[in-house]
Amino acid sequence: MTTVQSPPAPPTAIRPRAVARTGLYAVLAANAAVVTYFFTEAGFAANALIVLGRLAGLYGALFMAFQLLLVARLPWLDRRIGMDRLTSWHRWTGFGILWTLLAHAVFITFGYARSSSLGPIDQIVDLAETTEGVLRAVVAFGVVLVVGAVSGRWARRRLAYETWHFIHLYTYAAVVLAFTHQVAVGTTFTASSAATAYWYGVWGVALGAVLVGRVVLPVWRNLRHQLRVSAVVPESDDVVSLYITGRDLDRLPARAGQFFLWRFLTADRWWQANPFSLSAAPDGERLRLTVKRAGAGSAALRHVKVGTRVFAEGPYGAFTALHRTRPESVLIAGGVGVTPIRALLEELEGHTVVIYRVSTDRDAVLHDELRELAAVKGAALHLVTGPVAPDLLAPRELARMVPDIAGRDVFLCGPPPMMTAVLRTLRDLGVPRRQVHFERFSLAG
């Protein structure tokens, strides 16, 4: 059994997620105000359509920079908001980019066409041929359209993650092209030295955040910790636990409930990155992940050899005790979603009720560990088995197991349909939203 190196922070009335979210909104609002100010200082064109087009282009550029910040995987933001919520915001920001850039292209084209004898298509061709930077903007807009199309739900269901991710990487090319377009023809960019410095600062911070969060920090941590597989332990016919050791793991800022993107550096797996939660609280000596076979990739982990080098990105996730608001907790797990729940039970202080939902007793992975850990921690453990219908975690059943559930924090992890049903049950039972903690595995490009 693992031990925690430092005691968890007590419940706090100031929600870390609310602080981070408010900070992001404030940063975006402040920058929108600065962009508007510099736009008005640069003066207006005689043609109203061109004015609207330029303003839409500036807001589109700001949205692009903000989106880079959302996908930079900066630890401070990720621990407080969570990658799933940052990914959701990333998606909606992407729609903002698409519509503002579309407005920019349409208004600018029709604005210049109004001043000439050319039609809209001929006007675009003329601008691309005669004006520096416009052709780059057209290419960038095309890339944004393609990325937006493959990010739609219909396309995402039909594309492998690696394929979608590869296409998504072209967004960075679009960002560079858009920036060079702004430098070449942006009147607001060159209107004053202050405006020029501001836009260089915005793009520098955004691109720097991506470089640090996505490249520098993961590479530095892996060089420092030198992770390797130390043991491969089958838990059942379709579940396996892998133990990872390395150097100075006591200095790796991982917490129970978090996950890593794991790459096992073998000839056939080095290019695959999969999100797996820690299934035991970090003890400063080793990490453990427990994986259920869900495809060829996860099935192959049973055959990973001891000593295999590991490249891990993370830790990621806001599904931690940092977000506790009450002294007592309820942990609800479904299927292999028990892995972060088991780790959280090890770290959480105060009385805890654990509810483990599975179809049959045979599916209750890590149940023996949960029972032993619950006995040590003085926690109550309920193993709920049976078919999907009837709902064995309906309001009446959940209230029977935890009568005071509205006064506890609830940590939930499991298959999406189960999580949706339980979230609805918690609303029916009057559990305040701020006391409900869950996280879905969702990766931004």
From TrEMBL:
<feature type="domain" description="FAD-binding FR-type">
    <location>
        <begin position="222"/>
        <end position="322"/>
    </location>
</feature>
<dbReference type="Pfam" id="PF01794">
    <property type="entry name" value="Ferric_reduct"/>
</dbReference>
<dbReference type="InterPro" id="IPR050415">
    <property type="entry name" value="MRET"/>
</dbReference>
<keyword id="KW-0411">Iron-sulfur</keyword>
<feature type="transmembrane region" description="Helical">
    <location>
        <begin position="167"/>
        <end position="185"/>
    </location>
</feature>
<feature type="transmembrane region" description="Helical">
    <location>
        <begin position="22"/>
        <end position="40"/>
    </location>
</feature>
<feature type="transmembrane region" description="Helical">
    <location>
        <begin position="46"/>
        <end position="71"/>
    </location>
</feature>
<protein>
    <submittedName>
        <fullName>Ferredoxin reductase family protein</fullName>
    </submittedName>
</protein>
<keyword id="KW-0472">Membrane</keyword>
<keyword id="KW-1133">Transmembrane helix</keyword>
<keyword id="KW-0479">Metal-binding</keyword>
<keyword id="KW-0274">FAD</keyword>
<feature type="transmembrane region" description="Helical">
    <location>
        <begin position="92"/>
        <end position="113"/>
    </location>
</feature>
<feature type="transmembrane region" description="Helical">
    <location>
        <begin position="197"/>
        <end position="217"/>
    </location>
</feature>
<keyword id="KW-0001">2Fe-2S</keyword>
<dbReference type="Pfam" id="PF00175">
    <property type="entry name" value="NAD_binding_1"/>
</dbReference>
<keyword id="KW-0560">Oxidoreductase</keyword>
<dbReference type="InterPro" id="IPR017938">
    <property type="entry name" value="Riboflavin_synthase-like_b-brl"/>
</dbReference>
<keyword id="KW-0812">Transmembrane</keyword>
<keyword id="KW-0408">Iron</keyword>
<dbReference type="InterPro" id="IPR001433">
    <property type="entry name" value="OxRdtase_FAD/NAD-bd"/>
</dbReference>
<dbReference type="InterPro" id="IPR039261">
    <property type="entry name" value="FNR_nucleotide-bd"/>
</dbReference>
<feature type="transmembrane region" description="Helical">
    <location>
        <begin position="133"/>
        <end position="155"/>
    </location>
</feature>
<dbReference type="InterPro" id="IPR013130">
    <property type="entry name" value="Fe3_Rdtase_TM_dom"/>
</dbReference>
<keyword id="KW-0285">Flavoprotein</keyword>
<dbReference type="InterPro" id="IPR017927">
    <property type="entry name" value="FAD-bd_FR_type"/>
</dbReference>
